[in-house]
Amino acid sequence: MCTSLAAKLLAIRNDGQSATRLLRTAPYIGAAFLGCSIGEQTMKRRDLLAGLAGIPFAAGLGATAAAQDAYPNRLVKILVPFGPGGSTDIISRLVGKQLETVTGKPFVIENKPGATGMIGTTQVKNAPADGYTLLLGSTSTLAANPSLYKQMTYDPSDFTTVAVNGSIGNFMLVKPDAPYKTVKEFVAYAKSRKEPLFSGYGNASSRVPSALFEVTTGVKFEEVAYRDAVASIQDLHAGRVDCVFPDQVGGESYVRSGYVRRPAVTAETYPDYAIIAYSCFSVRKETPDDIKRKLNRLIMDAIYEPSVMERVRQLGFNPVPREWGIDQCDAFVVREREDWTKYIKLAKIEPQ
User: Fold this and answer.
1) Which of 251, 269, 287 is the last residue of a domain?
2) How many CA atoms lie less than 13 Å away from 21 in the CB half-sphere?
3) pLDDT-based confidence at 334, cuts 50/70/90?
4) What's the CA gap between 125 and 123, in Å, rounded?
5) Are 234 and 250 in contact (CB under 8 A)?
6) Is pLDDT larger for residue 23 or for residue 94?
7) Last residue of a domain, one of 219, 245, 269
8) Could you tell me the residue range of the domain that residue 31 belongs to?
């Protein structure tokens, strides 16, 4: 039995399907080797190792390659670093549902809010780089946070952006019964008061427009931080803050229902600045390239599925071109980070 073991391994080594055959025969190889006498084991050990070393794509690598070809072959987690109901949550569920339809595998949304997105983003950074934990990235986590915080638990370069969902503007929202209906009236009201007004924010992309509003209008705000944008809108409705600046997707349903009122969008408030927010799908940069490419095509096609695209446009998203590959998506995120670094400096926000 032991005499022919090395010969069998050499035959497998020279076979084009060596990795698959090795996986299938591994239990028998081990049994055969243990069946040898002690002397035979010692003598043949060199032949056994030589046979194994010569096989292209050792067993582990062969299994990995097979798993990549079949990706996804099990549940995929989409981690949203903000609470339910915000723009990142809404878009992740739209795209995730379509991905399930196309692949036949579950794409599960997990919300991990806190620290303006840093808690959830760090969790993805620490997850295996196998494509089964996706980050729903955003302006806050990948563009603004690096300029707002001195100590980060991740770096944007830890990730590769495989798809961009689109871009949106921000709303300025106030209470529905507030005594001002336009930005001009709001500014006049704020300047007539001795005490500053309160501005709430649930992430970096809603904090920066608020601070920029102060600089461009001369109004003074007291900032109030919230766990997410939804909580800030709820407190606005309750009268605990005077205004919030969420992105359009997060604020649209509240405006339509009359829960809050919208004096302006950022394009009207800051005509000199092309301020936009965006969301994207990212993975750890160490994720295999073939999985990144597959995710790029799966997600971009999912966004452009007619029923998904209709909803995306209703929400106010401006989608990027369907043919965008990973390089274009990654370059977009880098440009936005550069732009938001400038906005933060203009807003005179000191890093914390």
Assistant:
1) 269
2) 14
3) very high
4) 5
5) no
6) 94
7) 269
8) 5-68
